[in-house]
Amino acid sequence: QSVLTQPPSVSAAPGQRVTISCSGSSSNIGSYYASWYQQLPGTAPKLLIYDNNKRPSGIPDRFSGSKSGTSVTLGITGLQTGDEADYYCGTWDSTLSSWVFGGGTKLTVL
Amino acid sequence: QVQLQESGPRLVKPSETLSLTCAVSGYSITSYYWGWIRLPPGQGLEWIGCIHHSGSTYYNPSLKSRVTISVDTPKNQFSLKVNSGTAADTAVYYCARVLLISGDMYLDYWGHGIPVTVSS
Q1: CB neighbours of residue B48 within 10 Å
Q2: Which of A99, B22, B47, B62, by CA, is between 20 and 30 Å from A93?
Q3: Coil, helix or strand for A14?
Q4: Of the candidates B105, B108, B113, which has its C-beta nearest A92's C-beta?
Q5: For residue range B14-52, what is the model confidence (pLDDT) as tens digits?
């Protein structure tokens, strides 16, 4: 059971917008930057968002991140079938003195 | 271009030690932290730990008693050892570059991953 809570699954139609939430506490998201990772089927995870809302070079602006209090949210607009993947949030936790991942959210593009 | 490549035995017997190495190319291992993450079948990503070339380490508390991460600066690689392997250690193991600065941490480059099975 992760200290970061994500919905197990979300779904939306092509072209639509979807959001994925990641809820934590004052010892993790509330105090540190969070990042998001995309894991396409059969591939390694890829950094999608860092420092809550920054995109690495090469990540399209369809992907966005935001933070409010002890939660962060990943937004994806203009959904494509190629976006079907598992998405994970992650951050440092001061109580555990360790990095933690959320449980992961499986995105289905219907 | 930073590249990471995991290597090691893909089959480990129960109670034996799981040993993996991550070779880094395109960047010196003397900067940044370098970490290990695993993905057990049907589960989510699990953080194992990371190391700086100075020897500073951070481990997942749930694995700390069985895990050792070390760095080989001349070879520009780092390694993972998990003692007393059990079926629960069966997973795809990834190595990654870790940016770790006060208040800020993320994993920006990842290896392709190596599947490891613990079974007799």
Answers
A1: 23
A2: B22
A3: coil
A4: B105
A5: 999 999 999 999 999 998 999 999 999 999 999 999 999
